[in-house]
Amino acid sequence: MIPFSLNATKSFRPIAFLSLLTSAFLFFSACGSLSGEKRTPSGTEVAPGASSAPRLQFRLVAEEGETAPTDDFVNPNNWSGKIPTLHILRTVLLDESHIAAAEIRTMADGVSCLWIEWAESGRARFADVTGNNIGGTLAVIFDGELLFAPRIVEKIEGKGSSFPIDEKMTIEKAREIVAIVESR
Questions:
Q1: Adjacent-strand bridge partners of 164
Q2: What percent of the chain lies above the pLDDT cut of 90?
Q3: Per-residue b or e along 32-54, where b marks 16 or more CB atoms closer than 10 Å to that residue's CB
Q4: Among 64, 121, 131, 184, which residue is least crowded by beta carbons within 10 Å?
């Protein structure tokens, strides 16, 4: 079984994706109590267009009333047309340095996905980020493009994560992510 698998069907449908995403979050939730208190672990703030910015970034979407610096991205989850732009905090919580390995896998149903295995520091940090930001939204950005913005519904602890290859996360982008992880 692959932890945190977002196993989509060949005909990608946003509602099905959200359902699968919610199931993955629920399946890999941590046992025990959660206070509900949100906090953002320390990370690295990157200025817009900075040449030293990590190519793969995991950042939080700003909540209403948030005053920290943000970058605006087109909302990939804007199926209703109500929220066309997401304001994403500039603090990078996880990046490619938190990943031990990456590869493209084909699931049993024939759907391809990008599998990333967290390094020990990444595994602990991902659990911390998800556990302390339940109800928030985590943005996954690659080369300045927002690929995913799933809602965090539970703390996620696990060895790795799987992301479906679709119109935003193309096979080419997945190969680039694998290459930057392998080149470290």
A1: 113
A2: 52
A3: eeeeeeeebeebeebeeeeeebb
A4: 64
- The domains of the chain, with CATH numbers, are 14-30+53-182 (3.30.1360.200)
Looking at residue 55, what is its pLDDT?
94
Which pLDDT does position 84 carry in this prediction?
Answer: 87
Q: Rounded to an integer, what distance in angstroms lies between the CA atom of residue 151 and that of residue 137?
A: 4
Structure tokens given for 72: 């605006």
Tokens of 17: 């994706």
- Give the percent of the chain with pLDDT over 70: 72
């509602």: which residue's tokens?
A: 15
Average pLDDT of span 38-63: 72
